[in-house]
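Risk register update: the risk of archive-format incompatibility is retired. Evidence:
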Amino acid sequence: MPTFRKPQPLKEQAVAKAPTAIRVAPDRRSLSIDWPDGATAKFPAEMLRVFSPSAEVQGHSTDQRKLQSGKKGVLILTVSPVGNYAVRIGFDDMHDTGLYTWTFFAELAGSMEERWSAYLAELEEKGLSR
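Archived output:
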């Protein structure tokens, strides 16, 4: 039975460095981040939505996490800065409560394939669709 695992915290630093650029694709289906080391990460809107770091999605403990389904066509409407450490992303399904920190993006970039596979397996196991 597949289980969802939260990404492990960064070992070397508590907070990832701020990106040098954040871009939403013209079709609003992805967000790209350029990092100070020259690396770029591209995140599908659907992935950002289903892994939203909001309490609404993640709950206040792993027992409270809510599996998100039916988000395949979700689009990014807004990206707003939150201090110097995060952005708030607004989606066309009106979800906009997650604060996406630089550390969240860095951890997700390092585990996208593994997390996406586990997500798809959990959807299948529960008879749900993207």
